[in-house]
Design brief:
Layout: H1 6-34, H2 38-64, H3 75-90, H4 94-126, H5 129-164
Helix pairs in contact: 1-2, 1-3, 1-4, 2-5, 3-4, 4-5
Length: 165
């Protein structure tokens, strides 16, 4: 279907992140089962709860726009999840698997951050403060999670290197 108006563009992008959040939520649940590092597991558990709230926020955004929540198939999210699942299978040790999980989750967070920033710009341009506020809430959680993952990555890598020694 051709996207002909800015409203259609906005709803398309909103549907894209709605699909992505749902895909990423399932992927996080798989990664939680495979993770062994306590800090990584705790972070995933916390973010699963946040992701559930983010999906609810997106559903509220659709409602505020007078639309029914509709997922727009997100090929990028599908690819990131598929890559993460592949990494889980290919990891030769628990420590390497934890590193790969951390890397996959960072990719997820950065995709979400870029998506939310674009949607916030659109909401502000439309003058829709309520929508912008809900999306800003999601963005702040994503940025905080990305920061935590980036802080934890060297620790996971060091742990993997020590296991090799």
């Amino acid at each position: 279907m051709a996207i002909k108006t800015t409203q259609e563009k906005y709803l398309h992008e909103l549907g894209d992140i709605y699909d992505a959040e749902n895909r990423f939520l399932k992927g996080q649940q798989e990664m939680l089962q495979a993770a062994t590092d306590a800090t990584l597991k705790a972070g995933i558990e916390k973010h699963i709860a946040e992701s559930e709230q983010q999906v609810a926020n997106l559903e509220q955004v659709f409602q505020l726009l007078g639309e029914k929540a509709k997922a727009e198939p997100c090929d990028a999210a599908k690819g990131i999840v598929t890559e993460g699942q592949k990494n889980l299978k290919e990891a030769g040790t628990d420590e390497i698997r934890d590193c790969l999980i951390g890397s996959s989750l960072m990719k997820v967070e950065h995709y979400e951050i870029v998506s939310y920033r674009g949607l916030i710009v659109g909401a502000q341009a439309m003058g829709n403060k309520e929508v912008a506020a809900l999306l800003q809430q999601n963005l702040q959680q994503e940025e905080k999670t990305a920061q935590q993952l980036e802080t934890n990555a060297p620790k996971l890598l060091k742990r993997a290197m020590q296991a090799e020694a």
